[in-house]
Amino acid sequence: MRVLDRIDDPRELKGLTVQELTQLANECRGAIIETITKRGGHLASKLGVGELTLALPRAFDSPRDEAYPELAVRTAATAGDNGTMAHQTETVTW
Fold this sequence. Notes:
By secondary structure, the protein is an alpha+beta fold. The protein has a domain of 64 residues. Strands 1-2 form a two-stranded antiparallel ribbon. Helix 2 packs antiparallel against helix 3. The protein starts with a helix and ends with a strand.
């Protein structure tokens, strides 16, 4: 059975062994790569966020410890209507 299928709550990550956590990270990476391959998108940023998602619940006692990521800005270059490059910028705060 996959570790990913056994996780129902982020607090359960604290109970995983290092081996199980490594297996879970591999399963998450595989799911992200499979999804990006089928649907497209930015791979590197999603892999990094996946690693953080697994690490934060083990490092902090949520919800007692509060973590606030400061700011995320994503810019993507896209082809404009006349063949020129256009930039789309999205700013996200948590």
